[in-house]
Structures are given as structure tokens and as C-alpha cells.
Specification:
Layout (H helix, E strand, L loop, with lengths): L1 H9 L8 H6 L43 E4 L5 E5 L5 E8 L13 H8 L10 H9 L4 E6 L4 E8 L3 H13 L5 H20 L4 H12 L21 H11 L5 E6 L3 H12 L5 H4 L20 E6 L6 E2 L2 E2 L4 E8 L8 H11 L1 E3 L13 H7 L5 E10 L4 E9 L4 H14 L6 H18 L3 H15 L5 H10 L2 H12 L4 E6 L7 H19 L3
Parallel strand pairs: 2-6, 7-14
Antiparallel strand pairs: 1-2, 3-5, 3-6, 4-5, 8-9, 10-13, 10-14, 11-12, 12-13
Helix pairs in contact: 3-6, 5-9, 11-14, 11-17, 13-18, 14-16
């Protein structure tokens, strides 16, 4: 068998291979392209084995691949950025999401996410789509968020025609029947059950803090389908929603690792000539409910859910009983001049958990590590996050401790929020800026991350700023900028979410007074008092 394998490597015409020459010599067959009677130990490693295709190496140069954007006749935007490699990432981003579901039962986009890459007019089922993608080394995925729906694929460049044919079918020609709806209901139902059993309630806490911060409007609408809406959503509702929001003017076709002209030509073929299934058959949709163009209104507020978490366990290892708290304040949109400053502030606070599976050292010089986790052993976790959208933003700290200490946890977290308006040592600020710059550049080494960055920026602004642009903006942030945006943030009404046993959780007025009383000297200094 070893002789046969070596013959296959060196050439099918080789007849002179035996056990002795396999150990000592390369094949001497002319057909195999080998060298006669040369001991293997004398063959330099720089020589290419015979019959192997020549390798392709990346060449270091200063070529800058700019993002190119073309608007098609129907309003669809095509954006691409070339990149070295045999693989590419391509997908469709739509200005859609749970924030637009005010006229629909909440959960429409959750259903559409589960139904993605299923039956279409040209593909019998999900398996048929996967079989096509397997031939070109491809994978596919769909993710919905509060403001964007993303259908994406990664595959070999040669498979781009197949990819665009599938994408256009999935977006504009989905066949949503009773069987598909029922499978989506089951998948979402299982997700809802597991949500309450998960010892990490981050997804649930995000839902609750947005419901508190944007009460009954836009971003405060549920992203996860409520259990009571599972039976309310049918295929006509889904088609009606898609008819309103899957308009080409709200769509970006983005690609990374693809020649721009090639992508534009294929987009014209697949996304202009192909009509949406709901326009071909008007009986699929209800009378139009119109498009929601509401601007997000930050309200602040309190959302809590009392839940006994003392029995949560993973196998034989019991999990500690925790109470979970999120405190949020209004920040700014990603179009605002202060957006980068809020990102630096997020890195300044940082945070994490008291236990790290990857070992110590990750972000342990951030304030939430030094001032919260290191000084208060009873605090299980504390993490700062800045959520930014086209018209608003919310800066939050999520933390957890034993339920009996939720009042003390609230005091510690509010104190750290208030301290952001004070003086920031230069060494601390420089560290936060270096961390953010490093994170930005490291993440953009991944092709799917570049794809999403290209698509989201073009979807919201019509163009893409290169990483160097944000790198330079980060460098320009000063300690005065941090204090200024923090003072502005602290004047907004807090949004609070609590989950677990909550007898010790202070009410909203108490939390607001904590912030105001601790921050009065800093806020007064803003007006020269």
C-alpha cells in the first residue's frame, strides 16, 4: 500500500518503485519527473516534489484594497473589498429587524431567521442548498438583530455564481408553507425553553434592558419571539412584512475577496431580473400595513423578573445562586462624533468574570477588574458594553452576585459609572486606547468580520470608512473627552433590569438618586460651579 501511495504522488506512470527505493531514493521514472539515483537525504527542502502544483504565496506589498460601492437601477447597493485568498464571503444585509415590528406580532424576524436557507422556488429544501454549497466548500448562515437581517455565505471564489443564485432565491423567492412554519415554531419553542435553563442569562438580560430603556418603542420591542406569539405568526404575515422591508433600496449585497465588477455583473443578473415571490402572487400578502419609520425614543425604566435560580446546575456540578443586574444610560448613535469616545470608555471600564477559562491576564487592568472584581470577592461578574444604532445608543454594565448582596452590588456599579466623569490618568487612557485599536485590527483580520463591517457601514452611511480612520480617531480621544461624554450620559434617566431573587434590588428612584447624588459635584463643575 505504501508503494502504491508513493506511486500516486510521484506519477501514475512509475513502474520502478520497490520497498528499497521507497526508503532511499526518489522515483527514477521519467514520467514521474523524478531524479535518478539521488538519495532522499541529499534532496534539499527547497525543491518542489515532482507532479505537485506550484504553491501560491502571499506577497507583502502596500496595495490598499478600498471598498467599492455601486448602486444598481433598482436601488440595491453592491459593496465589495478585494482580499488575497482562494475563499470569499458574500451576503445580503437588509435594513430590517425587531425594531420595525410595531405593526406586527413580535417575533417576525426571529421566524425569518429560522426559515432562512430553506425551501425556495428553485431549491427543494435546505439539503439541496447545502449539497450545492458543499461542492464549492461553502457554508451559510442567517442572523437577525434589532436593526439588521444578514444572510451570508463563505465559499471558494469559483462558486460565486452558485452563491448569488442561492442568495437571491433565499431573499426573494422563499417558499414558506405549513411544514416550514411548523419547523420554525418547534425550533423557536426549544430556544425559549433553553433560554430559562441556561446558567448564563446574557441573552435574556439584553432583552430586558432594551425593554427598560426603550419602553414599547423600536429597540424596546422583543427580538426573541414571545411564547404567546408562536401560534399567531403565519406565512402571510411573514410575506407581508417582507413585502414592506425587503425593498432593494434597503438592501446591500456585500462581498469580501471578490472582484467588484464581477460581483456587480452577477448582482444585475440575479437581483434585478428575479422578482420577489410576493409580488408575483399578491394572494400571499395581507393589505399593506405600511413601513415604520419611527426614531428610537429612550425612556429609561425598570424591568424585573423574579426567578428562583438556586436549582440551576450543569450535570453533577451545582452552579452558584446569582442575582443578575444591568444598569444602562443613554449614550449616542454610531453616526455621532462621540461614538469612538464611548467605545474607549467601554474599554476603560472593561470587565469580565471572576473565573476565566483562558487563565488570568485578559483585561485585568480595566476598572471593573481593579475596582470591582478584585476588591469585592462576592461579585461574580461585571462587564461594560456600548450598544450603538443609527439613531441612538445605550451604555450598560451587566453584573451579578449572590441575591442577598444586590443592594451592595448596585452601589458598587453606580459608583463606577459616576467615576467615569472624573479625572482619567493618562496611562489608564493610553492602555484603553491601545486595547481598542488592537481589538479593532485583530478582528478585521477575519474575512467574515470584514464582510459584516463593509455591509453594515454601507447600509447605514452609503460608504465604508477604513480601519485606519477609526484607528486615528481612537488616538485623538483625550481625558477631557471621556469626562465630557460621561457627564452627558449621567444626566439621562437610568434603565435597569433585574433577574433572579430580587428582594434586595433597589427601586428605580433609589438607583437614580444614587447616580445623581454621587455625581453632583462633577456635574456642577461642568457649569463652572
Amino acid at each position: 500500500m505504501a508503494t502504491r501511495m508513493l506511486r500516486n504522488i510521484l506519477g501514475q506512470g512509475c513502474k520502478n518503485i520497490n520497498r528499497k527505493c521507497c526508503k532511499r531514493y526518489l522515483c527514477s521514472s521519467r514520467e514521474a519527473g523524478g531524479n535518478a539515483d539521488i538519495p532522499m537525504k541529499n534532496v534539499p527542502l527547497s525543491s518542489r516534489p515532482p507532479n505537485f502544483p506550484p504553491p501560491r504565496y502571499a506577497v507583502a506589498d502596500k496595495t490598499q484594497h478600498e471598498t467599492q460601492v455601486t448602486v444598481l437601477d433598482n436601488g440595491l447597493r453592491v459593496a465589495s473589498e478585494n482580499k488575497f485568498g482562494e475563499f470569499c464571503t458574500v451576503g445580503v444585509l437588509i435594513d430590517s429587524g425587531s425594531r420595525y415590528e410595531v405593526n406586527y406580532p413580535s417575533g417576525i424576524n426571529h421566524f425569518l431567521e429560522k426559515l432562512a436557507f430553506s425551501k425556495t422556488t428553485n431549491y427543494e429544501n435546505r439539503d439541496k442548498i447545502n449539497q450545492v454549497l458543499e461542492k464549492v466548500g461553502g457554508i451559510c448562515d442567517c442572523q437577525s438583530s434589532r436593526d439588521t437581517m444578514i444572510y451570508a455565505m463563505s465559499l471558494e471564489r469559483e462558486g460565486l455564481p452558485e452563491a448569488l443564485d442561492i442568495l437571491s432565491d433565499v431573499v426573494y423567492q422563499p417558499v414558506i408553507g405549513d411544514e416550514e412554519i411548523e419547523m420554525a415554531r418547534q425550533a423557536i419553542g426549544f430556544e425559549l425553553e433553553s433560554l430559562r435553563m441556561n446558567p448564563d442569562p446574557t441573552a435574556l438580560m439584553v432583552e430586558m434592558i432594551f425593554a427598560a430603556g426603550y419602553k414599547n418603542n423600536t429597540l424596546g420591542l422583543p427580538k426573541i419571539c414571545p411564547d404567546g406569539n408562536l401560534s399567531k405568526i403565519d406565512n402571510r404575515l411573514l410575506y407581508t412584512y417582507m413585502n414592506s422591508y425587503y425593498d432593494p433600496k434597503r438592501v446591500v449585497l456585500a462581498g469580501v475577496g471578490i472582484d467588484h465588477d464581477t460581483l456587480v455583473n452577477m448582482a444585475e443578473k440575479h437581483f434585478i431580473t428575479k422578482s420577489p415571490i410576493w409580488t408575483e402572487n399578491k394572494s400571499l400578502i395581507y393589505p399593506s400595513k405600511g413601513m415604520d419609520c419611527s426614531i428610537a425614543q429612550y425612556t429609561g425604566g425598570l424591568v424585573t423578573e423574579e426567578q428562583d435560580l438556586s436549582d440551576v446546575s450543569l450535570g453533577p456540578n451545582p452552579m452558584p445562586e446569582l442575582g443578575h443586574l444591568v444598569i444602562g444610560l443613554e449614550s449616542c448613535s454610531h453616526k455621532d462624533d462621540d461614538f469612538v469616545t464611548f467605545c474607549v470608555l467601554m474599554n476603560l471600564l472593561g470587565g469580565g468574570g471572576s473565573f476565566s477559562a483562558g487563565g488570568p491576564g485578559k483585561g485585568m487592568y480595566t476598572r471593573l477588574y481593579l475596582n470591582v472584581l478584585n476588591k469585592h470577592h462576592w461579585i461574580e461578574s461585571a462587564q461594560a458594553t456600548n450598544h450603538a444604532f443609527a439613531d441612538t445608543g445605550m451604555f450598560v454594565i451587566q453584573a451579578s452576585s449572590h441575591p442577598s448582596k444586590l443592594d451592595k452590588l448596585t452601589e458598587v456599579i453606580t459608583k463606577e459609572l459616576v467615576n467615569t466623569a472624573g479625572q482619567t490618568p493618562q496611562v489608564e487612557l493610553n492602555r484603553a486606547k491601545r486595547q481598542l485599536q488592537s481589538m479593532l485590527l485583530m478582528n478585521l483580520e477575519q474575512r467574515p468580520v470584514v464582510f459584516e463591517d463593509v455591509g453594515r457601514q454601507v447600509l447605514s452611511m452609503g460608504y465604508r470608512n477604513q480601519p485606519e480612520y477609526y484607528h486615528d480617531l481612537i488616538e485623538k480621544v483625550t481625558a477631557e473627552d471621556i469626562s465630557r461624554v460621561a457627564q452627558k450620559m449621567l444626566r439621562t434617566k437610568p434603565a435597569v433590569a433585574g433577574y433572579g431573587t430580587l428582594q434586595k434590588l433597589p427601586d428605580l428612584d433609589t438607583i437614580q438618586n444614587m447616580i445623581l447624588n454621587k455625581s453632583k459635584p462633577k456635574l456642577f463643575s461642568l457649569f463652572g460651579r
